[in-house]
Every structure is written in structure tokens, then in C-alpha cells.
Amino acid sequence: MKNVTDSFVSLGHWPSAGSFGFNTDILATNPINLSVVLGVLIFFGKGVLNDLLDNRKQRILSTIRNSEELRRGAIEQLERARARLRKVEMEADEYRMNGYSEIEREKANLINATSYSLEQLENYKNETLHFEQQRAINQVRQQVFQQALQGALGTLNSCLNSELHFRTISANIGILGAMEEITD
């Protein structure tokens, strides 16, 4: 401050002190001008600067609060999403296990049905074989019986005379007549 007052005191020593003009001595005038401008700025600008800083501080604080609220909301959404994910994973595991159980059950049912069908086919095959065997046996019996009958008839015809033949026929008719009376 002493330099500022010295500048005013030394005005009398300037050669152009008595007339109006520009002082071209930058080193002498700048500190005075700067101190005056700074004093005016500090005196009048203090309130404006405080208001600007307070507004800026309030905006920063509200931005921080909003960011905190958004962060809390994001954390809550993340927790809800994680819970839904766990639930969906559990349901997927349950469906997967149920699917595997269902597949195993269907596999067992298919095996049982196939086994039953094979067993039925085996039974039908055995029945068909038995039927064909019986039919073949009956055909052989019939042929043997016919051959035996033809042989017996040939033997009878060659051995029997007409009187023996007549008696045999009469005896057979008598037997048939007796059987007819019994059945009535």
C-alpha cells in the first residue's frame, strides 16, 4: 500500500503534472489500476461471487443427491434382476429335471410296451406253430387212416365172400340201430 500512496505523492514530481495527458509509464500505472479494479471487484463482486459459488455448490450437491438416488435405484433394480434370474434359473433347473424325468418315464414306458408287444408276437408265433403242427398231424392221421381203411377194405374184399359180407353189414346196421335207440 505504501507504493500506491507513494505513486500519488510523486505526482508533483512529474513534469506533466500540471497538464492533462496519458501516462505511458506502464509500471507505475498498472499496479494502481489493478489495485483499484481489484478493490472494486472485491467490494461489489463479493456478493455476486458468493451467490455464484452458492448456486454452483447447490447444483453440485443436487447432482450428487440425484446420482445417489439413481445409484440406489440401479442397485435395487440389479437386486430385483438378480432375484428374477435366480428364480428363472431354479425354474429352468426344475423344468430340466422334470424333462429328464419325463424322458426317462417315456423311455421306460416305451421299453415296457415294446417288450409286451414282443411277448405277444412270440405267443402268436407259438400258437401259429402249434396250430400248424396240429393241422399237419391231423392231415397225416387222416392220410394214415385213409390208407389203413383202403388196405382193410382191400383185405376184406379179397377175404370176404358175399355171405360174410352180408352178415358184417347186418351186424353194423344192428349196432347203428342200437346206438340210435340209446340216443333217443
Automatic annotation (TrEMBL):
Position of the signal peptide: none
Annotated Pfam families: ATP-synt_B (PF00430)
Superkingdom as given in the UniProt entry: Eukaryota
Family annotation (InterPro entries): ATP_synth_b/b'su_bac/chlpt (IPR002146)
Membrane topology per record: Single-pass membrane protein
Coiled coil start-end: 64-98
Alphabetic keyword roster: ATP synthesis, CF(0), Chloroplast, Coiled coil, Hydrogen ion transport, Ion transport, Membrane, Plastid, Thylakoid, Transmembrane, Transmembrane helix, Transport
Chief place of localization: membrane
Protein location: Membrane; Plastid, Chloroplast thylakoid membrane
Positions of transmembrane segments: 32-49
CC annotations in GO: chloroplast thylakoid membrane; proton-transporting ATP synthase complex
GO molecular function: proton-transporting ATP synthase activity, rotational mechanism
Membership in a protein family: Belongs to the ATPase B chain family.
Note: In plastids the F-type ATPase is also known as CF(1)CF(0).
Assembly, per entry: F-type ATPases have 2 components, F(1) - the catalytic core - and F(0) - the membrane proton channel. F(1) has five subunits: alpha(3), beta(3), gamma(1), delta(1), epsilon(1). F(0) has four main subunits: a(1), b(1), b'(1) and c(10-14). The alpha and beta chains form an alternating ring which encloses part of the gamma chain. F(1) is attached to F(0) by a central stalk formed by the gamma and epsilon chains, while a peripheral stalk is formed by the delta, b and b' chains.
Chain's role: F(1)F(0) ATP synthase produces ATP from ADP in the presence of a proton or sodium gradient. F-type ATPases consist of two structural domains, F(1) containing the extramembraneous catalytic core and F(0) containing the membrane proton channel, linked together by a central stalk and a peripheral stalk. During catalysis, ATP synthesis in the catalytic domain of F(1) is coupled via a rotary mechanism of the central stalk subunits to proton translocation.
Name recorded for this polypeptide: ATP synthase subunit b, chloroplastic
